Each structure stands twice: as structure tokens, then as C-alpha cells.
Amino acid sequence: MNSRARRLTIPLTGVLMIAGVIGATTRADAGTAPSDVVSSAASETAGEATAFWSPERMRKATDASDDLDLSVKGGKASSAAGPDGRAGAVPPIGGEGTRSIKSKQVNLPNTVGRVFFTLPGANPLDPGSWKYCSGTSVQSKYRNLVATSAHCVYDVKTNRFYDNWIFIPSYWDGNQAWDGKNPYGIYAAKWFNAHDDFVVKEDYDFDYAFVNVHSGFKVNWEKGTDGTWKPVVKDVGRLGDNVGGQGFAWNQKVKNKVFSFGYPAGLHPDGDKPFTGRTMKWCFGTTGAMPAAPKYNLQEHVGFKCAFTAGASGGPWLLKYKSSTRTGYLNGVNSVAWDTDKNDRYDRISSPYFNGDTYQVYKVAANRWTK
């Protein structure tokens, strides 16, 4: 390949995927929901998934990308992204009809956190199967919904949903083995909701997913009389009651100013590793149409300048974000990283354009109840 014509892209998780077993997969709410919405029950109970993730395992979770061919041909911006109907929006939790003061600070949203999961069918005790992404709480009827990338819930190589899937809003990582922080609790998956075109066709124009989670557990680690660290668990209730939830917007303008949040930690193509994944990072920019990338079947991505690496995948793009309330409108998710200036460093991120198809998947998930 001519390196002068090259553009590098990679899904921001880029996980190595191997065979496994999943829970029941169904068309969501048959008879009422669109036939292209696929839902799957998580394989583990809330207690099982929560108990699996000790702070040490969280710290050792990685985002492998060395199994992927990173190079695809570049090209002009595609004109495919754009509205397929009327624009729409759902307000953030607590933002219904309210107004807030302005803030000059970029206050990080409490809704954003890290997603952890294990590769399906792999030995869960093998650190090589411990993986992570980013995500955010989003508005829903039962305040139980997390938005992320579809490739953060589904393995396209083995057609399996991931195991031991949890979400930790406002996650941060301390320096000790017991310091994995879950200030608002740990929320385990109950239902995965994705678009059929991603599940069946591996089409990254549909690289978004919405996960219904159980009520959460707050886990603290205390040193026992025998010198070992042991978990102390408390039920903390629903995700949206604890951290709120971002609004949701679809069929908006292709060019928009957005904030992106996530937990990047992976390498740039040149081997540089500027992020640790221990704390949340942000980018801000104006979105625009991206080139088509046949490698990922994508034609309708929008992107903007941002040097996020692997681990940020699934983090939200927030339109009209207000630092004073730490809320905005979910209008994209970190999906693919690009090296557009061919210097072996990622310089843009892209998301599927959120259109009516996205809204249909969101609508099914936003009305699904969990305990």
C-alpha cells in the first residue's frame, strides 16, 4: 500500500475475540419493537458479575489491538451521513424544563465511567481475557441505561456478547491493589441492545449499543484481621438516581460542537502511550463527515480532531454540554480512531451518525425494566 495515501483507523477497543457462550438472544419486544433491534440477556447475575471484578483485575484489564490490520485506504469525506427524518431529543435526567448557570470550567460528568468485561468462552481467570471500554448513563424510563459502542458489548468474530459486563460511573484508579474506585457503585448488565446490522453485518455505521443494568452495589475494601483485603458490599439502587443520565439526540446537524469523554489507555501506532486509563479525559471539537472505510463497512461516520486511543471507545459525544450541570445530549459514541495526517499517531475520532435507526434501538432499551 502506498503510505502517502494511507489513513490508519482502528476500533478504539480493538479487542482480541474468542469463542464463548451467551444468554438468550431475541428480537426485542416482538410485535412492537423494530425487527432490526437485537437484545440479549447477560450470562451472569448482578452479584456474579460484580464479585468478579476486584480492583486488581480492573487494573490489569487491557485493550488489545495487536491482532488487527490497522491500515485502510483513505479518501474524501463521505456525503452519506445525515438526517433520515425529523430531528429529535430527549432531555437529560433532571434537565426536564430546567435552566442552569454558565460555567467556565470543564467539569467532568458523573455519568461517564469505565466498562469492564471478559471475553466470552475464555478462562475468566486468565488476565488476557479482562478488557475495558468507556460508557455513560443516559436518560431512560427506569433510570437503568448505559450507552456505549456496540463493539464494547458484542464480539463480531464469534457472534457472542461479552461476559461479566459491568459499568462504573466516575471510575478512577488508585495506586494500591485495593484502590479501584467506584464512588457511585458498580452496575452489572442485564440486557444488551444493539442494531442487527452490527450484530449480523459487522457494520460500524451501527457501532452503538444500550445496556440495561441492574441496581448497583457499592463495594469498599477493608483489611481483615488476617491481613487480607475483603469487600464490603452495599446496595445503592438505580444508576440514574445516583448519577443522573445524559439526554439523547438524533438527526442533528452533521457539523456540531461536541465534547467527548472517555478513558483512553492504548498505544498510538508509533508505540507512544500518552494515557493511562486511570482517569477520565475529554476532547472538544466540531464534527464533520469522515471518509468511508470499507474495512469496517462504514460510510456514515462523523468525526473531529482528538488524539484519544484505545480504551476511550464507547465514551459519549455530548451536544450542548453544560459544565454547571454536567449534562448534555448524547449524539455519538467513540467508535474508531484515525491517523489522517499519516504520522502514526491518531488525530481524529469518529462515531456513527445518530439517526432514526439509532433512536429505535435507544427507544427499546429506554423502556426496558430491570430489577
From TrEMBL:
Keywords: Signal. It comes from Streptosporangium roseum (strain ATCC 12428 / DSM 43021 / JCM 3005 / KCTC 9067 / NCIMB 10171 / NRRL 2505 / NI 9100). Residues 63-100 are annotated as: Disordered. InterPro entries: Glutamyl_endopeptidase (IPR050966), Peptidase_S1_PA (IPR009003), Peptidase_S1_PA_chymotrypsin (IPR043504). Residues 1-30 form the signal peptide. This is Serine protease.
